[in-house]
Amino acid sequence: MNKLFVVVGLFAVAFSQSAVMNDLHSKIQVGGVPTISFCNTSMDELTVTSYKITPDNVKPNENVTIALTGTLSTTVTKGSIVLDVKLDGFHVYSGTLDLCTELAKTPKPCPLQAGSEDLNVEVAIPSIPISGNIEAQATIMDTTTNKQIACVDIKVKI
Hints:
The chain is α+β, with helices and mostly antiparallel strands. Helices cover 17% and strands 46% of the residues. The protein has 3 helices and 8 strands, in the order ααβββββαβββ. Helix 1 crosses helix 2 (19-25). It is globular and about 40 Å long.
């Protein structure tokens, strides 16, 4: 439905709710104005029309809302989220999450239906005293077709 949802929304959900990412939260505090860029190899599967992060200056101990609008070209029944996170250029996390397991924690569980979708995901930002530059990449794959749905790069100074 919403590849933008799948890209940024899943990244946000995975980053905020998975057990592995909760462990990462225990090591990293997020803050600053995030920059987001899409690193898709193709825009065939997902077309992102808009996204917004509120507030735009992310700080510890606050909730951040990610609003996404996009169009998914095909129904997705199975998938993966590949995450790579660096702090000041050093790898702090690499892993693969099941797309449908992460989506089950949201109002939009699998399957993701083809078509347009609006999504709002709220992410709780933890408070852990560390500073540096975080670079994260999340790649969403349809594991049935082996096609990339979306790829997003997020950078934020903490």
